[in-house]
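Technical appendix A lists one of the benchmark inputs used to test multi-chain prediction within the project. The record comprises two sequence entries:
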Amino acid sequence: MSTTRVTMEGVSAEEARELVDRHRAPVYRVALRMLGDAHEAEDVTQEVLLQLCRTRASLKPGSDEGAWAYSIAINRCRDILRSHRHKMLALAPIEELDGEDLRPTQDLALDQARRERQVQEALQLLPASYREVLVLRDLEGQPYRRMCEVLKLSETNLKARVIRARRALARVLVAENAEDEQ
Amino acid sequence: MNRAHLERIRALVDGELPEADAAALRLEAARDPALAAELRRQEALHQKLLALGSPALPASLSVDALLGRALARADHERIRAYVDGELKPDAIAELLANARTHSNLDRELQRQLALRRTLASLPQPRPPMPKPQPGWLSLLLGRRALGLSLPAAAAAGLLLFGAGTVVGRRSPTPATTVAEQDLVPVRFVILAGDAQNVSVAGSFNRWSDKATPLAPVGDGVWEATVRLPRGEHRYIFRVDGRWQPDPLAPQLVPDGMGNMDAVIQL
């Protein structure tokens, strides 16, 4: 069907184009980091952008459009993750980490692609609630205030979750390093 | 290490800790190996995450590709809503106006309408015929049936069931043969200008748009005469592939697919 018609619900063709252009990259990044699968991330991006166009008119004036877009993307990823049987790592108790570190000197020897893959794989082993705060805070660089809106959490709870998520990721990376050494 | 330590480390990594507090934390870490290890670990992790590159967008996520697919999806949803009779009048007008200028949309719309009509005209399956039993038959046919032989009683049961068979989901039509003298000649007439193909689809021909063609009789008038059994019938004209409700019908009813069927009583 034609792409030139003005038939997108709720927004004009021009508004739809701007909306899509503004949000396609962050939505795709979040979906890719959350799901760890490029094809699924593409599908989610398509769905989320369609939903953004459909519901843009219902967004209150003065609302944070970015938070709204992230929120829709995160919710869609949660739905997908709930329907998957994702592999979860049995994490060692946090106390066992004391005295360990992430051996940055060894990491320097790793090439960038391997490092990225390692972190991405480690992210996939975390619970979705940890993964989403790491994606939004550490990979997307979003401020806590906006994250509170996206995740519907108080700032105190959000920061506590960030601490737990980062420690959990550190544990996964330490465990993977230990496996590599064996 | 307590929760306050962890919060201070988080704040340091997030760049929220004032310089003096950061220096104090580092000093404390110099005296506390566990705190130092956690601080080192969190800073290393932060660096790892920062170093992650931003994934490149695939070509399938170009603005044009995304918009094209989104528009196509929105069109399919509107067509579904139209076919299901859910679309509001202004949205119907917009859809039909778009269909007039976009052949792909029009083709899809006509395809879905045709599919819906085909499905709607499928005969409903008959309920399975219960095996005739003397007790069941006497209950069904009354006391006078008690004297029937078993084959005759079975035949009577078949007739009872057959008389109620619904041929189309949209309108019941008797399946029994109608005597010729009970058929009423009905002339269908429509003004269709320079149309190429005109037919009438209705409850009497299983909503087929091919079974009953109309013939041009001059001045843009098309007509066909059909002999129909008495009772209620519904119909709609098909003009060059488009459904056209009868503008002169005594009664029109929504067909649940966005069109109006004419209703006649014979």
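The first helix of chain A runs from residue 13 to 35. The two ends of chain A are 56 Å apart (CA to CA). Comparable benchmark entries are summarised in Table A2.
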